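Cross-posting from the modeling subforum.

Setting up a comparison between two proteins and wanted a second pair of eyes on the formatting. Protein 1 (sequence, then structure tokens):
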Amino acid sequence: MTEVGKGTAPMNAAVSSRWRRMVNLAASAAVAMLALVGCKADVISYDLPSESARYTFQAETNGVKTAWEYTSDRPAKPDTPTSQPCIADVVVKETGLCRPEPLIFLRYDLGLGLDNTAKASGLHPITVTGYYQDRLSTPPTVTDLRVEASFDGGKTWKSAGTRAESKNTFTARIEHPKRDKAPEGVALRITATDSAGNNVKQTIPQAYRLR
């Protein structure tokens, strides 16, 4: 059985199988990534085939939309430390190998003031870090990060230059317009891809405002 994280969202390709994977993906995932909102966690189970397949997992929390695409199959060996047992073993009481799913989560340092705003008219740096669930002992490496910003409520998007700073951590420089050109604040759309071909796309409709 394979474990994901916390939250509620639809998953595609959910078909009958004797191989059960517990999905317990945090709806607060979008928040852990931004630390702006919170949501209680639910435990959801899906029956998935044991063969390797590509899956899409989607979640929305307070308008923040996150979509993961990843490859999953039946584990060849268990990948959960004894100090942190598999949630599926505890909740479903099914025997079998268990490991977390390789979902990329995002953590942000938006460089904002105490009022959660950033200065208008100029380049503004932000830092984005990709990470995985703690139980995944050998996670992939985030190899590519794309940052887009919108100042008109998501009608149009402008790419920001990004640079790798350290493992799984990137900086982006967003060119802010004048404050009156972004009355709805700054929206962000982040896409990250790892060395295993998994990816995540997160859209934050109002990440912060300009001052």
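Protein 2 (same layout):
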Amino acid sequence: MTLPDPPNAPARVLERHTIGPIPLAERHGSGKGLFGIWLGVNMLPLTVVTGAIATVVFALPFWWAFVAIVLGNVVGGIFMALHAVQGPQLGVPQMLQARGQFGARGAALIVVIALVMFLGFFISNLVVGAQALHHVVPGLSVTAGICIAASISLVISIFGLRLIRAIVSLWAVVIGALVVMSLIWIGTNGAADGVLSGEFNAVGFFSVMAIGAVWQKAYAPYVSDYSRYLPAGFGARGAFWGTYGGSVLSTIFVMSLGALVGAAAPGSEPMAGLGNLLGGLGTVVLLAFAVASASTNAGNIYCAMLNTLTIGETFRKGWLPGLRGRIVTTVALHAVGLVVAIAGQGDFLVNFKNFILLLLYVLVPWSAINLVDYFLVRRGHYDVEAFFAADGGRYGYWNWTALGVYALGVAVQVPFAVTELYTGPIARAIGGVDLAWMFGLVVSGGVYYLLARRRPDVITEPAQTQAVEEPAPVR
């Protein structure tokens, strides 16, 4: 038996909504709010480490690395931020919308993949943040740092999206100022030789571009989770630019810092190298990064929670989780992440990160199908109530057209894929340049558009924006 949340549930303090549509009366926020949270989302040690790949692994001179980072993020950010438009219109989490393309149960496969990716990033951030903290406080083990980071994330996650947004936006200002100071400090204190070292190489340049683009694409399953509370009449332009501007700007700055550190201190682990290069300022910067990583990591678990509940509702129709379901799921996910992070401090973490990169390849076709369906096929017209129908409503349980195109989109990337676990034959032939995500986007989106226009379930008449009240939550 399921029970509703008690009337005195602290809804104003603890978020009570989960995967159900956000009632119109509770919509709030602006593009500035989206800009703030997306500016802070990338202020992480993991972003620094990723940027260092350009100059350490691919040996690019800093300025060529900077150009590749900018181009990759500018292009990839477009496809990521387009998903933000869907949140205000539909009022439901990002991956739940996949039911409109794949069917109620067909979408479950995509949701599971996204869930694993969210957990993967949560675990990676726990470890990298704990390593930064260990560098500042050597007497504190990495394991202890992981436990502290997970505890901070858990407390923030319990309160929900409102607190996550506030804290992430705050760290955007703090870390942003420290990143600018660090760039100036390193650039004016003996880093010139490192900046100019190395030679341009096409493989490195295009690979770093791909890293930037895929970094942005990796956020696609998050986007409407953050924008779904915006007013239903909120303009598409504001949702897009708030998300795009914040995410692209912060990633470029923080990845560029990592590339500069890699060029100036190529023999060091990036976060340790950053601390050493900054001298006395290094302790402050690393400590801030470590605490920020623990705080903003709550966003990964928040989205993982929404996906977990989406999977549960898929096979238990009529069950709409409320406050208790959100909290129990959040605690369970933190426990799983904590155990894996502690076990994966060594080489396993590297392999796990490679696995996450493979998951990104299989999410690219979903993104293409979702965007084409929303903007070109249905033009934003969805029956939101049907997402929760016991029989799948007009979208059914399975959409074999979308699933077939999705499989094609994954398969077409295989010859172009470049990872430490596998490199495709075409990628090897062109020197290891990673073009897989481009082909995944173009083929999936193009083929889906041609086939989906003939589907009988496509809504052709104007449809209302989600205007119904959320069904009574149950725990």
